[in-house]
Structures are given as C-alpha cells and as structure tokens.
Amino acid sequence: MIPRKDHILVFKKWLNITKEPIEELTQTAIGELKIKVIKKNKESKPRKKRDLEKLKTDITRQKYIQMIDDKLEERKTNENKKTWETLKETILTSAEETIRRKETKARREWFDDECEDKIKQKNEAWLK
Predict the structure, then answer these.
(1) pLDDT band at 93, cuts 50/70/90?
(2) Looking at residue 18, what is its pLDDT?
(3) How far apart are CA 25 and CA 31, in angstroms?
(4) Looking at the predicted structure, is the pLDDT value of residue 3 above 50?
(5) For residues 93-122, average pLDDT
(6) How many CB atoms lie within 10 A of CB 95?
(7) Rounded to an integer, what distance in angstroms lies between the CA atom of residue 53 and that of residue 91?
(8) Which domain of life is it from (predicted)?
(9) Contact criterion met (CB below 8 Å) for 99 and 60
(10) For 41-74, how does the pLDDT look when each residue is reduced to its tens digit (9 = 90+)?
(11) Which of 39, 81, 117, 128 has its CA 20 to 30 A from that of 65?
(12) Under a CB-based contact definition with an 8 Å cutoff, are residues 77 and 83 in contact?
C-alpha cells in the first residue's frame, strides 16, 4: 500500500496497473506532465569590460588619444595587411594602460539558501 501523502508520477502505459492505489489516496491528481531536459551551460568567465566612464574626463581622454597617436607613430608601416592589426593592437594596449577594466561582480544563482528554506517550510506546513 502506498502512503497517503506521497505523490505518484505515472506514465500512461502504466496507468492501468496503478488505478487502485491512486483511488485510495485522499488527494488525487491525474494529469499530463511534459518534461524537457536542458543541458546546463558550462560556467563562463564574466566578460571583462572597459571602464568607459573614465573617458568622460578630459584628462583621461586626452591621455588616451595622445597615447594612441604616439604608438601609431612608432609602428607606422606601409603594408596594408598589418595596418589593421597595428591599429587594433595600439587601441587595445592604450585602453589597457589608461582606461583599465571594470571590476565585475560574480553572478549568483537564483536558487539560494533562502529559496531552499522557504521550500522546506512549505513542505513542513503541508505535512501537518
């Protein structure tokens, strides 16, 4: 015999076998349940963003522009293929030296200790 406060999940093909115990329960519920299994994504590192607020000050902006100009002068080349790579590298290194990166907070999962406590309280109240 099945305890009275248990929940039963039954697939359609086994429904004929389990009808008798289900009728004995005080709270019966028969319905359909669709389950979709999703794969949890690997935890990715937070993307590092530049602190662009620093560019709003004139001193930092001028320093950044001057640094880019100086580095481009140093790396002048006539080859078209290396022009983009040189420009990209110059901008990234200048930004790293003047603007730096924003510090980001780690993401938290939504299901925390508080949620777990509330579920336990709900289950205990239901069992009473």
Answers:
(1) confident
(2) 46
(3) 15
(4) no
(5) 80
(6) 19
(7) 17
(8) Eukaryota
(9) yes
(10) 777 677 777 888 888 888 888 988 888 888 877 7
(11) 81
(12) yes
**Contact assessment for residue 8 and residue 29, using Cβ atoms and an 8 Å cutoff:** no
* CA–CA dist 32, 29 (Å, integer): 10
Among 42, 64, 47, CA closest to 55:
64
Tokens 């602190």 identify what position?
Answer: 51
Tokens of 16: 């004929």
Q: Which tokens is 29 given? A: 């519920």
Q: What is the rounded CA–CA span in Å between residue 128 and residue 122? A: 10
Q: Can you tell me the distance from the alpha carbon of 6 to that of 22, in angstroms, rounded to the nearest whole number?
A: 10
Q: Kind and range of the H or E element at 103?
A: none
Please, are residues 8 and 61 in contact by the beta-carbon 8 Å criterion? no
pTM of the predicted model as reported, rounded to 2 decimal places: 0.36
Can you tell me the distance from the alpha carbon of 26 to that of 112, in angstroms, rounded to the nearest whole number?
33
Q: What one-character-per-residue DSSP string does 69-92 give?
A: HHHHHHT--S-HHHHHHHHHHHHH
